[in-house]
Amino acid sequence: MKVKPVNHARAAEAFIKDTPHLTFHDERLWDLRQKRDQQMHELPEWQELRTLASQIKEHTLANLPEYLEQFEANAKKNGIHVHWAADGAEHNRIVGEILEKHGVKSLIKSKSMVTEECNMREYLEPRGVVVTETDLGERIQQLDNQMPSHIVVPAVHKLTPDVAKLFAEHYHTDPNDDDPQSLAWSQRLAARPVILAADAGMTGGNFLVAETGTFVVCTNEGNADLSATVPGLHIATLGIERLVPRMADLGVFVRMLSRSALGSPITQYTTHFRGPQDGSEMHVVLVDNGRSHRLGMEDFWTSLKCIRCGACMNTCPVYRRSGGLSYGAVYSGPIGAIIDPTFNERKYSTLPFASTMNGSCSNVCPVRINIHEQLYKWRRVLAEHHELPFVKREVMHMAGRLMGQPKLYRAAISGTETALGVLPRFALYNWLNPWGKNRELPHPVKQTFHSWYKQNRLKTKKKGEDA
Amino acid sequence: MSGTGVRMKIGLFVPCYIDAFYPKTGIATLELLEKLGQDVEYPLDQTCCGQPMANSGCNKDAAAAEALFVKNFARYDAIVMPSGSCAHHVKDNFDAIPQTDEVRHVRKNTYELVEFLHDVLKVDAFPWAEFPHKVGLHNSCGTLRALRTASMSELGEPFFSKPMDLLSKVRGISFATPRRPDECCGFGGTFSVTEEAVSARMGVDKVRDHHEAGAEYIVSADTSCMMHQQGCAERAGVPIRFIHIAEILNGARA
């Protein structure tokens, strides 16, 4: 059976109907965008930093094999075990084997989009490993059996009463106590014993540094540091595009990451992992999972520059009003809409159309990814690959034909028989029907501009010529 | 009046939805350019610039419209249109047909009305214009982020606004300051029907923002955005009116 494309429009419609959630979601993320703007205004060199960041990433991507090998060699010198995973299945197998070798039954982990890509929890749990997310938002999503709806704030589509209900179900707390502090406290009480007793810890990572063979994890809750250091076995999973060549390059990105994401100057914790602690083990799994393929796509390879700050999501007026889950993918929002089709073109064929192509995303992107232009290009690719809904394709084909023939077009505008005979009018009208669901139609006018011009300019001109 | 004394042979493009639903905007554009001493013609065989097809990914289906556009407009010094998104398409994406010298001429000399008045004619006064109302300016994303007729909030660049420069020369006009001046209104072409719910919600948020800021009118260089916003405002009962910038500059009082 063919995969069905994600129905973003329908999911978004459901999200919009719930006004309290919609309003909070829109305003919370808009607030992040405002805070990001304030940070930008405080750094006169902001645009220069964006250019530098973009150049560093493009250079790294253009020389990816060399830098990856450099990273591997240096990481090994630091006593880190380095693994290579071509895809999600291989990643999960590698992680599974490490855990099995150490007899791990309980794994604590911090947020990692790559493990979401790989569906790692679903792989490990049937194999007897209990996985506990330690990031608050990610834990909420895990308990609710949902994907993260945002790459930085995974549960931003929820309100505190939702969390109170969820915690009551899992932690047996008061379902009516939706005070954020007591909810955070409940999570802490539930998480700390698990952290202390865990057999292994897992983290994602924001940056790999080739020249030092080290990696950097940025968080605001400190949970990654606990996950990495408490159990004595640390596995870090990172996409191969997370690389920067030198330690000196890192400053550019660390300055931009949290400013773009949350509008704070830096994350609370910016931890450099340089090697295992005495008596413990450290593993890094470098994951490809489609990245090499993407690197070869002329129009889309620069999407690999992404540092996962989520600024494009915060500014996106469509994302803010549809919620991350409506994208039906690990990566939502503008960046998701240009990355997801590289994982499954049919399934995510609708996402590049879930955009007005207003371009705000490209403007806030700290690494200058031309997101809205890639959305435009994806639409072409998807049309060429026949991934557009039949009706839309037909309507565009009809419209294209009509617009090339002035006489037929005039006839259609004035609604005469000539046009009706040629155009399957019902298809066009049915397709346009949704316009009126929440909107009035434009008011009818007595005369088109075309007809006015003929009457008021051509006739008078002719008269002038005759005289 | 024109600050340069330039007189050009201008081809006027009136987009399909203006032709059919907002002829006043087309008339105002024509009269305004005539008042400014320009030699304006409206080629009768024009239809569309190809944007709806191209934006939907169906670039091949845009070829006939683009070819016809070039046939109609290649003979003019400048092609002017009261639509930012159409101008953006012609300038930046018009590639369904081979790029001949004629096509390149057309693309290079296509202007959205505001940028034409501001940058080419450098108009410094509209002595006939008076609009004693508080207006909220809506910059379409095409004019703002593609044609760059105003500064963009995301970039933190020094403030500038070509449409506001022009409107400031109109007697009696004042401006409302919406909370999210750069936010897209949600029209987005076919997006308005394929993503109806999001589109309409963005539209109603947009008109409320202007209304709450005290705007009596929303004024824009893009009728397509306003057609959508007007539909949303009327359905939601937001009392606000809409007018194209060409009409104000041409002397409309209300």
From TrEMBL, chain A:
GO BP: lactate metabolic process
Keywords: 4Fe-4S, Electron transport, Iron, Iron-sulfur, Metal-binding, Repeat, Transport
Domain 4Fe-4S ferredoxin-type, chain residue ranges per copy: 297-318
Any GO MF annotation of the entry: 4 iron, 4 sulfur cluster binding
PANTHER family assigned to the protein according to its UniProt record, in alphabetical order: LACTATE UTILIZATION PROTEIN B
Name of the molecule in the record: 4Fe-4S ferredoxin
Lineage: Bacteria, Pseudomonadati, Pseudomonadota, Alphaproteobacteria, Acetobacterales
From TrEMBL, chain B:
GO molecular function, one term: oxidoreductase activity
Pfam families cross-referenced by the UniProt entry: CCG
Top-level division of the source organism's lineage: Bacteria
InterPro entries given in the database record: Cys_rich_dom
GO CC terms in record: cytosol
Provenance organism: Acetobacter peroxydans
Ranges for domain Cysteine-rich: 11-90, 135-228
Protein name listed in UniProt: Glycolate oxidase
